[in-house]
Each structure stands twice: as C-alpha cells, then as structure tokens.
Design a protein that fits this description.
The protein is α+β, with helices and mostly antiparallel strands and 222 residues long. Helix content is 54%, strand content 20%. The protein contains four helices and six strands. The termini are far apart.
Length: 222
C-alpha cells in the first residue's frame, strides 16, 4: 500500500513538471512571436514610408531629368547671350580705339598737300593743309595787326608760325614779320642754326586768332 502511494505521488510530480515545461515553452514562443511581429511592423513601416513605389520613383526621376535638361538649356542660352554681349562689347571697343587713333593722328599727315617750288626761286617746296586751325587769341573787339614785339598780336603771330612749321619759339630766328594785305601777315623764320628755313603766310580769324594758310620751305634767306 505504501509503495502504491509513492508511485502515485511520483507520477503526479512528473506530470506537473511536463506541464510546466510545455507552458514555459508556449510562453516563450508567444513572446518570440510578439517580438517578431512588432519588429516587422516597426521596421517595415519605416521602409514603406521611405521607399517610393517603383512607378512613383520612375516618375520622380523623369521629372528630375527634365528639370536638369531645362537648367542645362538655360545655362547654354545664358552662355550664348554672354558670348554675343562680349562680341558686341569687343566690337565697340575696337571701333572706339580706331576713332581715338584717327583723332590722335596728326591732321597735317592726313590732309596736307606738298608741291615742288613756290612763289620764287628761293622756295624749295610749298605746304598747304586745310586742317590747320586758328591758334586762339586773348584779344577782343575789332582787330588790327600790330607788328610790335611787345604786343600780344606779335606773340600770337609767332605762335601760329611755330604751329605750322614745328619750330619752337625758343629755337626761332625771325628774319621778317609784316603785313601781307587786309587781315593777313607773312613771316620769314629759321631755326637758330639755319638748318630749317620757312616763309609762313597767316590769316586772321575774328575771335579765334591767327591761322596758317601756306608754308614755303626755303633753300636760302633773302
């Protein structure tokens, strides 16, 4: 009798142990399933939010490509406009430089006319230049030529002669300066070493001063 009771208690203990193992295994399995499902929901949801469907992604890439093409086209057009603007600017600068160069070029070299001989046997050649201009004047009112070395008119006549011949007044010897008719004068000058000799005809222009009209290069001083 005692032996049966022991076997009965031992059997119950074994059954309880097996039941506990099964229950613990089921609980562990449920916990694992919960973790797997939660992880799938959490991480899978983030991936769905971040990843676009294939069609939408293709459409987005297509729009981006079109925008890049438009931007590239705009850059090309802007570069063309810049090239045209640069070419126009360079053309204007070249034209301006040409005009400035023409203005700086001595007017005597552009229009002067040189002929052999002149008014007498002492004349080697005659120079006329329509581009010569009056040298200016400080005189006002009605003008009458004054052949006095201390008068302003004399100094202005020498300025006109220097302008026409290129001989500086500091290197100039005046052999003659006198009347050549109404509002006209004529002067004979040379460099101090007499290597250059000229007879210069000048005319008075009201309000503007004396203006050279003709220069004769002389081979001797009479």
């Amino acid at each position: 009798m005692k032996g049966n009771n022991r076997e009965s208690r031992f059997g119950k203990r074994e059954k309880r142990k097996k039941t506990n193992i099964i229950l613990n295994s089921l609980i562990a399995l449920v916990i694992i399933l919960i973790i797997v499902v939660s992880a799938k929901i959490f991480f899978g949801g983030n991936n769905n939010d971040q990843a676009l469907p294939a069609d939408e992604q293709t459409a987005s890439e297509s729009k981006q490509n079109e925008k890049n093409k438009e931007d590239k086209g705009n850059d090309i057009e802007q570069n063309k406009d810049k090239d045209v603007e640069k070419a126009d600017k360079e053309s204007e600068e070249e034209e301006k430089e040409t005009e400035e160069k023409a203005e700086k070029e001595p007017e005597e070299d552009k229009e002067q006319v040189v002929t052999e001989g002149g008014s007498g046997p002492d004349v080697e050649k005659t120079i006329e230049n329509p581009a010569w201009k009056p040298v200016g004047t400080s005189q006002t009112g009605e003008h009458t030529a004054v052949y006095d070395q201390n008068h302003a008119d004399w100094q202005e006549m020498l300025s006109a002669i220097s302008y026409a011949t290129g001989v500086d007044q500091g290197n100039m010897t005046v052999w003659f300066l006198g009347n050549n008719g109404p509002n006209s004068s004529v002067g004979t000058i040379s460099t101090k070493d007499q290597s250059e000799k000229y007879r210069v005809y000048i005319d008075w222009v009201d309000g503007e001063g004396w203006k050279p009209s003709r220069v004769e290069v002389l081979n001797e001083i009479n």
